Structures are given as structure tokens and as C-alpha cells.
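assembly run, all chains below
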Amino acid sequence: MGRPASLSRASIIAAAALLVREQGVAALTARRLGEALGCDPTAVYRHFATMADLEREVGDRFLRAVDVRPRAGEGWRATTRRICVTLRRVQLRQPRLAALISAAPTRLANEMRITEALLRELARGGCSYTHAAASYHALIELAVGSAAIDAPIAAQPAAVRRRLYGEWRREYAKLPFARFPASVATSDQLYRGSAGDRFEAALDLLLDGIESRCSTR
Amino acid sequence: MGRPASLSRASIIAAAALLVREQGVAALTARRLGEALGCDPTAVYRHFATMADLEREVGDRFLRAVDVRPRAGEGWRATTRRICVTLRRVQLRQPRLAALISAAPTRLANEMRITEALLRELARGGCSYTHAAASYHALIELAVGSAAIDAPIAAQPAAVRRRLYGEWRREYAKLPFARFPASVATSDQLYRGSAGDRFEAALDLLLDGIESRCSTR
DNA sequence: TCAGTTTGTCAACAGTGTTGACAAACTGGC
DNA sequence: GCCAGTTTGTCAACACTGTTGACAAACTGA
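ok done. output:
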């Protein structure tokens, strides 16, 4: 009953995801989306209460790209690590979406799928329920938080990023030694490699801590 | 020379910080700031190139509250932990500021001060330069990332937060067991305690990992 | 005194999300 | 077949946002 819908939640989400993929998350506005859909911008409000609601759905849609199936012969730690690395990489592509998704659990399809996979792997590693939950929260905070932090810089081209990291290192090196001895001494090692490398190093440290409190080691 | 300034960078930052403290970061707009200062909104642009520039300064100003001095008899790990917990708590109060500050190192006064303190404590713990840098990045990603994630919920009153956490736990418990066995089994332990508790647990796991790779343990 | 500079004011532009009135287009009941 | 009711897209408008360029006030150095 009622006027036949030319739009649907699914078609709007698809168009929004395409828009984000092609023009970045800043392009996801009611007016541009209306243009992409060939309809009035406010038509979207017939299917989503607010633009933020739509953004949540688009964010979860991007999480489809996270493959959580353990590979043959892959231990729990390797699988967990891979899921976290992929999760961060996906979140990283869309700065504001990462912040939105992570603000509260969306409890949408893909988020649940990833949660289940991480808890499953932690159980496989011999974590107690309590430790699995704590470890899950720790992994998510690090992976999603890291994405939220690194996203703005990840949006720059690789050459620009490397130049920036170099500049920062030099700035730490040039600090007055009297007040910043540790910074000067360490400056050479700060912001080394890519943000992804630094995240993986952090993840490995965290996984060390998690593993050390598991029963089966 | 020139018309005498009734405004200054410092007075604007102070007014902006007050605005944020009293009405939240969403209130930090050119027009509201102008109203608070008793001047035209665009006068701010004589002292800051963009509103984002001003926000960075306000963000760094909040970091003044982080006390990095080691207390008597406090080991490197305890000091490091305390700095991270405080840093997160300060960042947490102002959602968007956290995101802005963390997007790129501001290299403003207080950020440098905190960096120096963390590197100093890690050195005290016997970390090599390489390990200290990696650990520093890991700690910052976790602390600031966690703040960015938790900030929207932290803005709610405590009672609302507890209710939300309870609702989420129940939602995980009600998932179909066939597809979400681990989530259902762990549901009772998810979102337990406050977000601060969960962060501190994550921090302890990370510190375990960091410590295990230090020379002096 | 007068030119030059700084600094605040004002109007305006191009955006943003969102709302409420309206109309088109369908379905179920008579 | 027609009419009421419902859904759904359109349109104008509101209240915001950051930011710019022209202008004027108020000072300093020559």
C-alpha cells in the first residue's frame, strides 16, 4: 500500500557506500547523496531517521571486507592478529565512519560477526570467559582506536606521510636536551616505518600480554 | 603600531577552553565564541587561521592537567600507567578534541611534556631506544584511541551508561547460539564495569607485553 | 599631520542537517 | 469504479556552520 518506493534502505546504503568509496566520507551529505540517487535530498529521511543512522549502516557495510575465517593450520594468535589488522585497515579508510561505528557498538551484522570471531579465537587460545572478554575489549580499543587516530594521516599520499614522519623525527631531535633528554635520545626511533607497522608492533605487545595470561601456552 | 588589540591568542584560548568546559565541545563555534568574548565572531580569525587551529591549542591546554612527575617510590611501570590513565581521562572529556589532537602530533607544549615523560619512564624500565619508541607509540594509540572511542558514551550520565552496558550484555546473550556460540557464552563478561576499568585492564595487558621485552625485570 | 598597519565589524557566501506542508501514486474496502 | 488511507518523494525554509572581503576605527612612526 502507498506510493511505490523507488528508493530502499539497501539501495541508499549502496549509493552512500559508493559515494564514500569514490569521493571520501566528507562527500556523504544529504544533498550529494540525493544527487547520486537522482532524487530529492530529503527523500533519504523517509528511510533513515538521521544521516548519522545511515552512516552507521554504511560503516558496518565496509566491515563486510573483514574475513574472519581461520585459515588452515593457523593458530588462534595468528588469526586474531589478522582479524585485528584487517579491521583496522578497513576502518582506516573512512575516518569519520570509524569514529561513528566505535562510538557505540552498532550491533549490526558485520560487527557481530567480527566480535564472535575474536571471542572464538580467544577461547581457542585457552582464555577464560573473563579473560576473553577483557582481551576482546583491549583488542578492539587498540584496533579501532588506532584507526581513529591514524585515519587523517592515512588519507594523505604515502610520500606526504613519509615526509611528515621525517619532519616530526627531526623536530624531536632538535628539542633542547636539558628539558627533553629522553625525546632527543629516542627521536631517531620515533615514527619509524608506517603507521600500520607501528600498530602491528603494538598489537604484538598486547597479544604477548594476553597470551601470558592464557592457560595454554 | 596599529589599532590596540582587545583580544589575544591567550585570551581567546582561555575563553574557548571555558566554553568547552561548561557547554561541551559542540559549543566551540565561531559565533558562540564571539558572543562569549563580546566581540564579532570573525575577530577570532585575526588570531587563528582556522577554527581547527584554535581547537588544537585548546586541546593542548587541557593536557596541562596531566601530571607527569613520578611520585616518591613509584616504579616506572606505575608512573607510566598513571600518566596513561590520566591522559585518557583528560582526552575523554572532550570527544572531538581528542580526535583533533591525535590526528597529528600537535607538537605543542603539553604534548611534548607528556611524550618526554613516557619515554623517560620507559628508559627507566630498561627499554632499549627501539623498544621505548615502539612502546610509546603503543601506549599512545591505546590511551588516545580508547578516549576517542569512549568519549561519546562518557558524555552520558553514569546511570545511562550503566543501563546501556546492561542492555548490550543482554543483547549478546540473546543472539542465536548456533551462529554466535562464543558471544553468547561470553556475554555475561562483556561490557562489565566502567569503560575506564576496561581501559585499565587493556593497559595492564599491554604493559605486561612491554615489560616482558625489557631488560630489567 | 599623514601614511601605514593592525584589528574589530559587518554583510555575505556556500555549505550542512532537518522539518513541515504538499502532492503523487499506490492498496484495501465498499 | 470509486474513495479513503497510507506511503513516499518534492519543495521551500529554518537554523546552523566556517570563512572571506570590504570597510572603518585606532593606533605608531615619519
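Chain B touches chain A through 63 residues (CB under 8 Å).

The radius of gyration of chain B is 21 Å.

not gonna interpret more than that til we talk
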